[in-house]
Write a structure and sequence with these properties.
Spermidine Synthase, Chain: A, domain 2, alpha/beta, 284 residues, seven-stranded mixed β-sheet, five-stranded antiparallel β-sheet, Rossmann fold, binds S-adenosylmethionine, 2 domains
């Protein structure tokens, strides 16, 4: 939604807030079978991708989200080799996953090929690992993919989906989490973007309780900055197939063999820390 000439604005009605970026103009628009995909050229954030009117990713700040949805869970699993990414069509999460040399297979299953084609054109830096021999890209419904996956096949499932509306709605319920429990190995971990702790505490609790009802034994919600999303403060929730969520392989984090912009051991620990209101209000 654009409120004024020269600006892109996403109004978040439920929160009574809005987020705007000064733009040079719209450079792409595509209505797929599933959603409307737009790309704007901004004055100070590079390109901005918007799906059904909601900001998704910008050139300038996407590192917060892509690093924090990928690295904490990968450094929590004892030895992640096979990773499934559901959603993630801009390919930024795939790129972060493939920085881990121990990963042998990263399958990305996004329902909308239009997102990836737009990313290839306007966010080529996020698509830098798409031709890695370990990468496989599919354009399917992730809900169906998870339900049909071989039992115990994956070490990690990353749900990098849109908000719980439209095609993304079915990624936030017990039936989907049951499919994920079955598709994960005994040390398996799931991580999912779980919206804002400021605006979506009810959704967060619904998700955590549904994950536990589906058979995950432990859940932990991480927080991190996310400038272009409503409230600017976001979460990812990790669920474990067995035991409780640990603090991660800290020595491996310290020795990580790849560059990041935001993620390091301090930020890993900070993301796991829980503000007082979350300690009080989070269930499961
Ligand atoms: N990674 C981005 C970021 O930096 O915040 C945002 C997430 S990504 C663009 C969200 C993706 O979820 C979209 O590409 C959308 O097509 C995909 N998606 C939504 N529902 C899906 C489903 N049921 N199965 C697979 N992908 C789905």
């Amino acid at each position: 939604m654009s409120l004024g000439k020269g600006w892109f604005t996403e109004v978040y009605e439920q929160g009574g807030s809005a987020f705007s970026l000064k733009i040079k103009g719209k450079v792409h628009e595509y209505q797929s079978r599933f959603q409307k995909i737009e790309v704007y050229e901004t004055e100070t954030y590079g390109y901005l991708m918007v799906i059904d009117g909601c900001t998704m990713v910008s050139t300038r700040e996407n590192f917060f989200y892509h690093e924090m949805i990928a690295h904490p869970v990968l450094f929590t699993h004892p030895r992640p080799r096979r990773v499934l990414i559901i959603g993630g069509g801009d390919c930024g999460t795939l790129r972060e996953v493939l920085k881990h040399p121990g990963v042998e297979l990263a399958q990305q299953v996004d329902i909308d090929e239009g997102v990836t084609r737009a990313a290839e054109q306007y966010f080529p830096e996020l698509c830098a690992s798409n031709n890695d021999p370990r990468a496989e890209l599919y354009f399917e419904d992730g809900i169906k993919w998870a339900a049909e996956a071989d039992a115990g096949f994956y070490d990690i499932i990353i749900v990098d989906g849109t908000d719980p509306v439209g095609p993304g709605e079915g990624l936030f319920n017990e039936a989907f989490y049951r499919s994920c429990v079955r598709a994960l190995g005994k040390d398996g971990l799931l991580v999912q973007q779980t919206e804002s702790p400021l605006y979506h505490m009810k959704l967060l609790n619904d998700v955590r309780l549904a994950m536990k009802s589906a058979g995950f034994t432990g859940v932990h919600t991480l927080t991190f900055p996310q400038p272009i999303y409503p409230s600017g403060w976001w979460t990812a929730t990790i669920a474990t197939r067995s035991g409780a969520i640990t603090g991660g392989r800290e020595q491996d984090i310290l020795k990580k063999p790849f560059e990041t912009v935001y993620y390091n051991l301090d930020m890993h620990r900070a993301a796991l820390a829980q503000p007082e209101f979350m300690k009080r209000e989070l269930k499961g």
